[in-house]
Amino acid sequence: MIGYVTLGTNDLQGNAGFYDAIAKEMGVGRMMDFDTHIAWGQWDGGAGIALTRPYDGQAASVGNGTMVAIEAKDPDQVKRLHEIALANGGTDEGAPGPRGEPDGEGRTFYAAYFRDRDGNKLNAFCMVKG
């Protein structure tokens, strides 16, 4: 089970507003706030997201093929998260919409993709019936 995901950043304070807005839509806030890292989520809740300056002092870089997925409650929240990301300095990597074919239970993967200001890739998703 994943407790949290940490992403590297070269501009902690500059990216903080991006994640503050995403966290607010998800109904959580900052649970840790230090000079070198910030974490969003809820103690004893689901998985959280943290941003940190790399411990080794080197520049943060984006992992090719690495992505953080945020589980939304419905397609409307997927759309809102995508809009919030773009309004807070993020870039579009795929507009909200269904992806792929329905699974064996008739559910379809509904998702939107975006990057934060450092280029880290995120996805907001939910499963929709029908």
Automatic annotation (TrEMBL):
InterPro entries: Glyas_Bleomycin-R_OHBP_Dase, Glyas_Fos-R_dOase_dom, VOC_core. Residues 1-127 form the VOC domain. It holds the Pfam family Glyoxalase. It comes from the Bacteria. Residues 87-106 are annotated as: Disordered. This is VOC family protein.
